[in-house]
Amino acid sequence: ELVRQEVRHVRRSARTAWITVAAMAAIVCGAVGWTTFKITQSMSRIDAMNEMSRRVELEAKQLLTQRDTARQEAERARLAGVEASGRLAAYQEQAQLAAKQSDKRPTTRPANVLQRLADAMAGE
User: Fold this and answer.
1) Which terminus of the chain, N or C, has less C-beta within 10 A?
2) Are 84 and 93 in contact (CB under 8 A)?
3) What's the pLDDT at 96?
């Protein structure tokens, strides 16, 4: 009878040990699965953030290029405006000089005879 009790006790202990091993194996599998899921999720987030970072960087480069182009165009327009103002001032100065000189008589005399006669009759 003592041997039978001992056998039952050993079987019960063995069953408890195997149940404990199975439970620990299930817990380890669950932990590995959960960890794998979290790592995969984190990698997906990192990939999404890297893609967004690349897009922001590309857009920033495009905006810098557009800014530089706009600055160059503004400088060209400013220079063209200054040049146009200078030309206008020169034309105005020429017009003023022409107006002053139109009051003066030409210093050359007519070359043909008819013009000389006409000038003589007019008293010039």
Assistant:
1) N
2) no
3) 85
Going from the first residue of the chain to its last (124 residues), give the mean pLDDT of each consecutive group of 10, the final group possibly shorter. 91 97 98 97 97 97 97 96 92 85 60 72 71
3-state secondary structure of 54: helix
Count helices and strands (H / E) in the chain. 2, 0
How far apart CA 124 and CA 112 sit, in angstroms, is: 15
- The two tokens of residue 38 are 């979290």
110, 119 contact by CB (below 8 A):
yes
Considering the entire predicted model, what is its pTM? 0.50
Q: What is the pLDDT of residue 111?
A: 58
Number of neighbouring beta carbons within 10 Å of residue 116: 13
Alpha-carbon distance values, 50 to 11, 13, 63 (Å): 57, 54, 20
> CA 44, CA 4: separation in Å to the nearest integer?
59
